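pls design
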C-alpha cells in the first residue's frame, strides 16, 4: 500500500524522471594486488553517507542510485576510493589499494611503555564514546560436516554504548533449520552473545582483553604487546599485537588497529583457541560443549564526529557431546555420533546510525528468545523485498532451498510453501488468522468431565472465569518516500489464553467465531489505514481504536451467547461471520444449529 500527500499531480509528473534517474547498482569490491574479494567493505553514497556493506564474496547492491551520485568505498588498511555510480555500473568491479606500511618511521617499538599506554587509552576512548542507536542488520549461520543446520537473518533497532551493545529490539526476522540425526541444533537467543561481549569492559562471560585494563602494571603482568606495523596519512594507524602470558583460556589474544594521535580504535580482532569462559550452553541437561574456540572482529567508523560500531563478526566453534540420555538413540541408529563439531558465524552491521525503525505494534514478552519473537510475527513480504540486507551468495541460496526442502523455515511464509507443521519446541503459541485454518486450545476439558453450567447471570459469570481469549492486531509500519506503508494481521495469543469450558465442540466454535470477529475489525482497520496522507500519530490512533472496537464486539458476542451455551445466539453470530468472511464454523466443527 502506498500513500500520497498533497500535490498529487506534481508528484506523478516527476515519477518518470525519478524512475529513469535512479537504478540499482551491483558490483564486487576487490584487493587491487591479489584480486581477492573484500568481505564487509563499506559502500556509501557521498551525498548523505548512507549505504551498505559487501557480503562474504565482496558483492554489494544498492537499490536506487542516481547516475550523478558518487559512491565511497572503504576498508580497513586500504585507501578509500570515490567513484561515480555510472562508472561502477560499467566496470562491475572496484579495486582498493592497501595502505603503505612504514615501520621505520615509528618511534614506539617493541615493548615500550608508550605502547601499553596507547592500548589503555584506546580502551578508555571506547568506554567514553557514549550512547548511540541506529538500524542494525544481523546474520548468522551454523554448519557441521559442511551442511547448513541454521541460518538467521534479523533487523533490529540497536542501542549501543561505545563498543558495547545495550539492546537489540527486533523489527523483523526469519530462520532456516536443518535437522542432524533428527535433532535441531539452534542458537536460542541468536544475538545474545554479541550483547555479552564487552571488549573494553570486564565481564565473566568471555575471556579478558587488554583494552579492559586501567593499569599499565596489570596489563604488563598479563599480556605481551608488540607493534607489528604502522601506516601514515589521514587513514594511518598502528597495528598492534597482544599475546596473553597465561594460555589457559581466560584471556583473548589478538590484534588492534588504533590511531596513535587520538587513541581511536579502527579495528579489533580477538581469538581464543580453547576458551575457559564463554556464554554458550548445551540444549540437553546431560550434554556438553567441548573445545570452544572464539574469534571476534569489530570494525569502527566515525559518525557525526564520534566513534561508532560499523561491523561486528563473532565466530565460534565447539564440539557438541551428547550425554547418556542419547543411549537409546544410539541403539536404534548404528551411525549415531556422540560428538559433532559445529561452527557458527555471526555478523552484525550498524548500517544507519541515528535512524530507527518503527517497531511493530505488538505486545510480547520482552524476555523471550529471538526464536520465540520470530515465531510471533507474521511474514511481511514487502518489508523483506525492500530490506537492505546483504546480497545472497550462491551457497546461501542453496542453503535456503535445503531448509525449505528438508528442514524448517520460521518467520517466512513465502519461503515455506509446504506449510510443514511444527511440533514441540518450534510449535508457536501464536496463530495467524486464515480462512483456511481453524484453531483449538490444547487445555480444553472434556465434556464428560465437567458438569454443565446453568444459563443464568450467575452462570455466565462462572463461565467467564473459565475463559480468557487474547487476540492482537499486529501492525507493521514503514516510512517510504510517499508516506507510510502498513501491513497488518490478526494474531491469536496462546500465551495469555485459556479455555476450560464444558462441551468439547461448542468451545471450538466459540473460539473461532471470536477470532473471526477480530479479523473483521482488522479489515476495517486496514481500510482506514489505506487512506492516503496519514500521519504516524493518526496511524497509532486508528490501531488503538480498532483494538477497542475488537474488545467491544467480542465482548458482546460472549455475553449474548452466554459463552457458547446459548445455541441460538451462537448460530446468529456464526451466520454474521459466514456473511462477512464465508466461514461456517458450526458446519466445520460438526455442530448442528437449532431450527428457527
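designed seq:
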Amino acid at each position: 500500500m502506498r500513500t500520497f500527500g498533497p500535490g498529487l499531480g506534481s508528484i506523478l509528473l516527476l515519477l518518470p524522471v525519478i524512475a529513469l534517474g535512479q537504478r540499482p547498482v551491483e558490483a564486487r569490491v576487490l584487493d587491487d594486488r591479489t584480486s581477492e574479494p573484500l568481505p564487509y567493505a563499506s559502500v556509501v553514497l557521498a551525498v548523505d553517507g548512507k549505504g551498505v556493506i559487501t557480503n562474504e564474496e565482496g558483492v554489494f547492491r544498492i537499490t536506487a542510485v542516481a547516475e550523478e551520485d558518487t559512491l565511497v568505498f572503504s576498508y580497513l588498511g586500504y585507501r578509500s576510493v570515490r567513484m561515480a555510480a555510472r562508472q561502477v555500473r560499467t566496470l562491475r568491479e572496484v579495486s582498493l589499494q592497501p595502505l603503505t606500511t612504514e615501520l621505520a618511521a615509528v618511534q614506539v617499538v617493541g615493548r615500550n611503555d608508550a605502547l601499553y599506554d596507547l592500548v589503555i587509552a584506546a580502551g578508555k576512548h571506547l568506554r567514553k564514546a557514549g550512547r548511540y542507536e541506529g538500524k542494525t542488520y544481523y546474520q548468522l549461520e551454523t554448519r557441521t560436516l559442511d551442511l547448513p543446520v541454521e541460518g538467521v537473518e534479523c533487523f533490529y533497532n540497536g542501542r549501543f554504548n561505545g563498543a558495547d551493545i545495550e539492546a537489540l529490539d527486533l523489527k523483523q526476522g526469519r530462520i532456516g533449520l536443518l535437522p542432524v540425526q533428527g535433532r535441531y541444533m539452534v542458537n536460542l537467543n541468536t544475538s545474545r552473545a554479541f550483547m555479552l561481549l564487552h571488549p573494553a569492559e570486564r565481564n565473566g562471560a568471555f575471556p579478558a582483553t587488554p583494552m579492559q585494563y586501567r593499569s599499565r602494571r596489570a596489563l604488563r603482568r598479563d599480556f605481551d604487546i608488540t607493534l607489528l606495523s604502522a601506516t601514515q596519512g589521514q587513514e594511518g594507524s598502528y597495528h598492534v599485537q597482544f599475546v596473553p602470558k597465561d594460555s589457559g583460556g581466560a584471556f583473548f589474544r589478538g590484534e588492534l588497529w588504533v590511531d596513535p594521535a587520538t587513541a581511536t580504535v579502527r579495528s579489533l580482532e580477538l581469538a581464543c583457541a580453547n576458551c575457559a569462559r564463554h556464554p554458550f550452553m548445551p540444549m540437553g541437561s546431560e550434554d556438553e560443549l567441548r573445545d570452544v574456540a572464539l574469534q571476534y572482529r569489530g570494525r569502527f567508523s566515525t559518525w557525526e564526529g564520534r566513534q561508532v560500531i560499523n561491523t561486528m563478526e563473532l565466530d565460534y566453534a565447539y564440539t557438541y557431546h551428547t550425554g547418556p540420555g542419547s543411549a537409546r538413540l544410539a541403539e536404534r541408529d548404528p551411525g549415531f555420533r556422540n560428538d559433532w563439531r559445529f561452527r557458527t558465524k555471526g555478523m552484525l552491521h550498524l548500517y544507519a546510525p541515528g535512524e530507527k525503525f518503527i517497531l511493530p505494534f505488538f505486545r510480547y514478552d520482552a524476555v523471550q528468545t529471538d526464536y520465540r519473537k520470530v515465531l510471533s510475527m507474521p511474514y511481511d513480504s514487502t518489508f523483506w523485498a525492500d530490506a537492505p540486507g546483504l546480497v545472497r551468495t550462491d551457497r546461501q541460496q542453496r542453503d535456503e532451498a535445503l531448509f525449505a526442502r528438508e528442514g524448517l523455515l520460521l518467520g517466512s511464509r513465502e519461503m515455506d510453501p509446504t506449510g510443514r507443521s511444527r511440533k514441540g519446541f518450534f510449535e508457536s503459541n501464536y496463530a495467524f488468522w486464515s480462512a483456511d485454518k481453524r484453531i483449538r486450545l490444547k487445555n480444553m476439558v472434556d465434556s464428560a468431565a465437567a458438569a454443565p453450567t446453568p444459563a443464568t447471570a450467575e452462570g455466565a459469570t462462572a463461565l467467564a472465569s473459565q475463559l480468557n481469549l487474547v487476540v492482537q492486531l499486529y501492525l507493521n509500519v514503514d516510512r517510504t518516500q510517499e508516506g507510510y506503508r502498513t501491513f497488518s494481521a490478526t494474531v491469536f495469543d496462546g500465551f495469555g489464553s485459556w479455555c476450560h469450558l464444558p462441551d468439547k465442540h461448542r468451545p471450538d466454535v466459540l473460539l473461532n467465531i471470536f477470532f473471526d470477529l477480530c479479523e473483521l475489525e482488522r479489515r476495517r482497520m486496514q481500510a482506514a489505514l489505506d487512506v492516503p496522507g496519514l500521519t504516524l500519530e493518526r496511524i497509532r490512533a486508528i490501531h488503538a481504536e480498532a483494538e477497542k472496537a475488537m474488545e467491544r464486539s467480542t465482548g458482546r458476542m460472549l455475553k449474548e451467547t452466554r459463552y457458547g451455551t446459548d445455541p441460538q445466539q451462537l448460530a446468529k453470530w456464526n451466520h454474521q461471520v459466514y456473511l462477512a468472511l464465508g466461514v461456517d464454523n458450526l458446519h466445520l466443527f460438526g455442530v448442528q444449529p437449532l431450527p428457527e
